[in-house]
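Q: Predict the assembly, please.
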Amino acid sequence: MIRIVVALFAFAVLLCAWIIYDPFSGQPAERLEAEAPAPIAAPTPTDEFVDRLGEAIEVTRNVPEVAPTQPVMREITRTFVEPTIRVDDRTLSETTAGVLAGLGLDVRNPAQASVDDPMAQMTVGVLSGIRAVIGETEATLTEPTALQVLVIQALRDGQTDAAIDAAVNEAALAGDVAVPDVMITSDGRVDTSVLLASIIAEARVAAGEARPPASSESVGGDGVEVRVVQTVEETQQYRFYTVSAGDSLGSIAIKFYGDASYYNVIFDANRAILSSPDRIRSGQRLVIPNAS
Amino acid sequence: MKRELRVLLVTWFGMLAGAAAAQDVRITEDMATAPFSVAGRDYVIARNQEISNRLTGELARTSRPCPDFCIQPMRAAPGVRTMGELEVIAYLQDEVSAGNGLLIDARPPGAFAAAAVPGSVSVPLDVIRAGNPYRGQIFEAIGGRQDGIGFDFSSALQLVIYGDGPWSSEAAEMIRVLVDAGYPAAKLGYYRGGMQGWQSLGLTVADTVSGG
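A: Predicted assembly structure:
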């Protein structure tokens, strides 16, 4: 009795296998040819059937193997598709000057910035004299970058800072614009406020206001740590700052010095842990040098 | 009377000699003139061949009030070389014409336009002072690179700077301003004699802004 049951079971298993493999329908083989990543060498007429059967079995067997590899494939695809923010090799000040030029306020050419300023006039004369001797032609205007065009348009439209920030981030994530490295935050976003603050500061200078000195007043708040080291000769104060989410090197420079252009001071003091200005991460403890 | 006669005699002989030899007042024994070119323009420095020539007017003054016109020390700043006329001429021929350096006139633009060393460029002291909000552009024009708050002058041009003369401070002052801004002293030179020293030797003077 038990033998009959085992035999029937074995028969059923074989039948199932036969139905699944179905070597005579020809469809799996055709499907295989359609899906085959590389053309398979043309089978010789004599062993065509054997070959096709073998291929079919192999492909069918491969199906369950493909499934576990799928997540890996998706991961690979993601690293290509996932938007990464491109870093512009133009500095923040260059980007700022370009935006101001686009707004009709050229800080690079003092003649246009303020015609009445005798110092600007004199500077223009000196520059043309130097260029004549060096044999350099007048500096040509460089084409504005995509970021500059975007910010210029947004500022012209009178958009809010938050709206500009959202637009810049969207464009940066889509890979449409490249941004200066100091604007990249610890969580991989673009800190547009750094650029906007820089634009305002430069516009003030262009309008004839004196450049404010670096603020050295004590800065408090989350992540700020002050250590006073007393030696026989002097008392030195060291400041540290722990990076939190959303901080960029530019915003930290604004926080401590009142000017994003001081980012280099922080970057230089922390080269041991920062490979480049856009590589800041939450939790990093940065030394903040005192403004000299 | 005797002195006057001697001057007359020397002048007479000088004129005779001048007619005989084309270049009687040479720069040095080996060098009659110093030709060079800067950015496609040709210049020739020579000396006034008129032996009777004398400085007059402003250049002949000896006693300007100090302050402001005080005698300058031989060294403008540590590490900055002080140069005489021959060194300035060699610098024009070797460095300025090769595009490695500039000869800078630190006086106000009006003084430069009236008379200047050929091949020099006008950079008045005031535009180099920290008070000029546009001085960064001049630093960039002479090869400085913005580096955070300051400038990196490691690949900037050599500069030799002159002013009115040993009694005038603008050239030495400009050197101190540049050193404070981070300019390497080794790239700076000080022609202490200035325009008065230059003209007292009868050396060629450019009399327009374009340096003709």
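The first strand of chain A starts at residue 86 and ends at 88. The domain at 224-288 of chain A is CATH 3.10.350.10 (Membrane-bound Lytic Murein Transglycosylase D; Chain A).
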